[in-house]
Design a protein that fits this description.
The relative contact order is 0.19. Helix 2 links the parallel strand 1 and strand 2. Strands 3-2-1-4-5-7-6 form a seven-stranded mixed sheet, with helices on both faces. The longest helix has 16 residues. With about 180 residues, the protein is an alpha/beta fold. Helix content is about 30%, strand content about 35%. It has one domain: Rossmann fold. The structure holds S-adenosylmethionine (SAM). S-adenosylmethionine binds next to helix 1, helix 2 and strand 4.
Length: about 180
């Protein structure tokens, strides 16, 4: 049927953390904990893992998956995050950059909570939501121009495919400067 964004995002994590010390990860818009599942089982990540989501039921399901979670934050993300600046080595936001879900205005706040040299790993659909996608691109390009972040990678893949249409997603990896 197509690619699995959480698995692809964790493959990018593995690729880009070979020479990076990672002790703390925040998964934002974590849903039922798919990133945590792949981090623990595929990447064999053993450090601290916090998850954040607006939906209590999703968080409850994630809490039952034996992911050894440190903190579970129930929070509706709008702008600044309710965590300390530079408190994470890696932040994931995968599958949640969708119109009326996690707003683009929250990206600078996500960057603030990652330490210098740490990573931001995002996914979004490439073609289906043109306006939202161009806002996503604009904010990230501006942040790159301002020297806040640097893009290390972008991998595009077929997310859903059937006979009539294909929907592509992409995983982005940024370094916090
Ligand atoms: C499609 S799911 C993705 C879940 C998971 N990251 C994955 O890839 O399987 C989107 C998640 O984003 C959460 N979400 C949407 N808007 C949000 C917001 N503004 N603040 C926090 N969570 C939000 C939803 O509750 C949902 O769990």
């Amino acid at each position: 049927m197509g690619g699995n964004p959480p698995r692809k995002a964790v493959e990018s994590f593995t690729k880009h953390t070979k020479n990076l010390k990672v002790d703390s990860v925040l998964d934002l818009g974590a849903g039922t904990g798919a990133i945590g599942y792949h981090l623990r089982n595929d990447a064999k990540y053993e450090g601290a893992l916090d998850i954040m989501d607006a939906n209590m039921e999703m968080l409850y399901i994630a809490s039952k998956k034996n992911l050894n979670l440190r903190n579970i934050f129930r929070h509706w993300v709008e702008r600044e995050l309710p965590v300390r600046d530079a408190s994470y080595d890696v932040l994931f936001c995968v599958g949640s950059f969708i119109p009326n879900h996690v707003p683009i205005s929250s990206i600078p706040g996500m960057s603030k909570c990652v330490r210098k040299g740490g990573l931001l790993i995002f996914s979004t659909r490439v073609h289906s939501t043109e306006e939202y996608k161009s806002e996503f691109d604009d904010v990230l390009t501006n942040m790159e121009r301002q020297g806040a972040i640097k893009r290390l990678d972008m991998i595009e893949f077929v997310h859903f495919a059937n006979a009539e249409k294909k929907i592509n997603s992409a995983v982005y990896v940024y370094e916090k400067l």
